[in-house]
Design a protein that fits this description.
The protein is mostly helical. It is 72% helix and 0% strand.
Length: 366
């Protein structure tokens, strides 16, 4: 069972890695188009350059179920799974099953294609037709009928209920759910745990719910910004909480964080894992609570501080980011222990004492 779950996670993460460039590009196109006065149009005569960008971005977002389904199936069954996987995504879009339908359809197509590859025996002359004709066609027929008549409609109903639930949350509930999304989204700084709520945010974006995506973007910047502010506090309060190597790491983590790359915090967190994860996750949760309760939304799923102007409430987005970062920094300065004098500087000579030296090596001529 554990092996199956690990494989399932691997397939979904593979699909996400292929899907992200589409999400980012489409989101930026929508943002640029909207900022320049564009809107979605359905007739060529109404097309302007800003409207072309917005419309193209919406087209891109409409491909998300197909991308997630196609590349999930590809991860499971290799090339024979791509075509039926993409078709399952089209069925998900047609039925209104959205992102969740794409995931389920991709899994069905992928495992069915793999089953046929492993078990279907054909004459030798037909073996060359297996990957490009027989497996994709049979998989598309069977998986398509399953999606159309068995599970597509229930998934569409679940998707609509989830959408209705989120759109009708009151402000108090938004604070709670925003905190949870932000907290979980930063728990392992871009690792597998974080990818789960982030995947949900991407799926909700496809359904026109922008607020969770804004939490994802803003909360990802909180750990590196919060750690950087805590370094400033430590200098002002003369409480050394970072050694020289960590200070250098923070200088790298901060610009990475502004671009929504949380991984720069990992080397710093590893030296004091429990305290750092606790402080940064609380700060991310605060950012999520403020952002969701103030109806901050983002149609762009990535880009860091550079996409804040494109959010629905840029001022409150900045307040949410700053608020969570300050909370993280204050918690870090309070909870982290003051370093002793010998722990602040890293002795380079000591770190290199085990290295081999070839200075005294002589080669004799014989």
């Amino acid at each position: 069972m554990n092996n199956f779950l690990n494989d399932l996670k691997k397939h979904l993460l593979t699909a996400i890695s292929y899907m992200l460039p589409l999400v980012v590009a489409a989101g930026l196109l929508i943002a640029i188009g909207n900022l320049t006065g564009g809107q979605v149009v359905k007739e060529f005569s109404q097309l302007t350059i800003p409207s072309a960008l917005t419309t193209l971005g919406v087209f891109g977002m409409g491909l998300l179920p197909s991308f997630i389904a196609g590349y999930t199936a590809y991860s499971i069954a290799d090339r024979p799974g791509i075509a039926p996987g993409f078709l399952m995504g089209q069925i998900a879009s047609f039925l209104g099953a959205g992102f969740l339908g794409g995931i389920v359809g991709g899994l069905i197509a992928g495992y069915m294609a793999k089953f046929l590859i492993d078990n279907l025996k054909v004459p030798k002359w037909a073996e060359a037709l297996m990957p490009m004709l027989i497996v994709p066609t049979l998989t598309a027929i069977v998986a398509g009928l399953i999606m159309f008549f068995l599970i597509g409609q229930p998934i569409a109903w679940i998707t609509s209920q989830l959408t209705y639930f989120i759109k009708n949350l009151d402000r108090t509930s938004k604070v709670t759910y925003g905190f949870v999304i932000g907290f979980l989204g930063c728990l392992d700084y871009g690792g597998p745990i974080s990818k789960v709520p982030n995947l949900i945010c991407d799926g909700l974006l496809l359904e026109g719910i922008l607020e969770p995506e804004a939490i994802k973007v803003l909360a990802a910047m909180v750990p590196p910004i919060g750690v950087t502010i805590s370094l400033i506090w430590s200098k002002l309060l003369k409480k050394k909480i970072y050694n020289d190597v960590e200070v250098e790491n923070i200088k790298v983590a901060f610009p990475m964080g502004l671009c929504m790359i949380s991984e720069g915090v990992i080397p710093i967190a590893m030296n004091d894992l429990v305290r750092t994860v606790f402080c940064t996750s609380i700060g991310c949760g605060i950012t999520g609570a403020i952002s969701f309760s103030m109806d901050v939304g983002s149609s762009v799923p990535s880009g860091g501080v550079f996409v804040i102007p494109a959010m629905t409430n840029p001022v409150m987005a900045f307040v949410a980011l700053l608020g969570g970062s300050l909370v993280t920094s204050i918690l870090l300065i309070i909870t982290k222990k003051r370093l002793k004098k010998g722990e602040v500087s890293i002795n380079e000579e000591a770190s290199n004492e085990d290295e081999l030296s070839f200075d005294s090596l002589e080669i004799s001529e014989g």
